[in-house]
Design brief:
Elements lengths: L1 H28 L5 H6 L8 H4 L3 H12 L5 H7 L19 H7 L3 H14 L4 H5 L4 H9 L4 H22 L1
Helix pairs in contact: 4-10, 7-10
Length: about 170
């Protein structure tokens, strides 16, 4: 029994050391490529959206947005060493093609239809009022870390469609 107690104590201490280092590292990274991830991953452990999203492809899409592991111009351009300010939306908008742009700003008809559909559904949720008054980056972070199943499902579906569009464009 004593050995199990010691192992448990050791495990707890090691986990606390890891969490402390993780918190320190999050703070030091600041506004880097991981900016979205750092804004949505604010506690150690499994993220709630993984349990709330009912469709695996939607979970994957949310994960890709959270980690910037996608084919949006902001990331593709980084791999191709294109300066950030030149990673423009290929759908006819002059803005940088990042996550915030495609969720909130892109004026391409496909994106407008998708966004209007999302907004029409989100307006019916309690979460909608919380998002008002926030900037787009904060709104995105709030949506990507929402503990509300309905929001997770809506943003998962939306993210899946957006990322599919860009995956199809690059094939």
């Amino acid at each position: 029994k004593e050995i199990f107690s010691q192992i448990s104590t050791l495990r707890s201490k090691l986990e606390q050391i890891f969490v402390d280092k993780w918190e320190q590292h999050r703070t030091e990274l600041g506004d880097t490529k991981l900016g979205i991830f750092l804004g949505v991953k604010d506690e150690f452990g499994m993220s709630r959206y993984l349990k709330l999203s009912k469709f695996p492809l939607h979970r994957i899409a949310i994960t890709k947005l959270r980690l910037s592991a996608h084919k949006l111009p902001i990331e593709v351009g980084r791999y191709e060493q294109i300066p950030r300010h030149e990673r423009r939306c290929p759908l006819g908008c002059p803005q940088i093609g990042d996550e915030v742009h495609y969720i909130f700003q892109c004026s391409h008809p496909f994106m407008l239809d998708l966004r209007n559909n999302l907004i029409n559904k989100m307006v019916q949720t309690d979460e909608w009022n919380t998002l008002q008054g926030m900037g787009h980056t904060e709104q995105l972070r709030s949506l990507l870390k929402s503990p509300v199943k309905e929001i997770v499902c809506l943003i998962g579906s939306y993210a899946f469609k957006v990322l599919k569009l860009f995956r199809d464009l690059t094939i």
